[in-house]
Amino acid sequence: MIYGVFSDVHANYDALRTVLKHLHSFRPEGYLCCGDLVGYGPQPNECVELCFALPNFRCVIGNHDMSVLDRLPVAWFNSCAAEAIAFTIKTLSPKARSLLETMPLSLDFGDITLVHGSPRNPAEEYLLTGEQFLENADFWKTQVCFVGHSHVPLAMSRAGEKFPEVTALRHGEKILLEPRARYIFNPGSVGQPRDRNNRASCGIFDTEARTFEIFRLEYKVQKTQELMRRRGLSELLIERLGNGW
Ligand code: ZN
User: The domain that contains 183 carries what CATH number?
Assistant: First the structure.
């Protein structure tokens, strides 16, 4: 089965459409998303509705989605993020809100687990190191776990009792899964990349070929920035999008 994998859309509709167009060319039978459909960006309703129209769309809830639904205190966020959450609450349609409410904290099916942050703390932990891989090892049971939240495309793997390896993934990099190793993959962020590369990030997971491949795609960053400005979102967030940070 081929899955399109993405995360952290953050209401960036142009980036989302670019990513979905690319993933569609692989004819995926399903789509996996690690949460944060909204927050930061200018078009939350369009993003939520487009994602939920995808075939076999499976998505877990992210910390921004939770805060918009009043399940995580706004005090958790910095002031720019909190401002964007207030904008999202004001803008969100009843339909988009009810779709966000269907998203669970974690999902596992077949050989795949989905969480936003980490298996032990799906709403908050930024999973970035080999130590964290070990600390999380008993909190998920499948061979592969997809996470988001850090907005950095990463492959983490552990074969047997070895210390986990952590690799930052670049465009076109393809990981071949070893049968006995375990993996945590972060597909990076669609709508707000944070690895000093402003291209939208996504991946393809092929369960038969046992591969995960990352793609970085150019989209009209300025168009999203202009829309953010018109909607009164903070200059810091606008600038950040251009810098990929
Ligand atoms: Zn996020």
Answer: 3.60.21.10
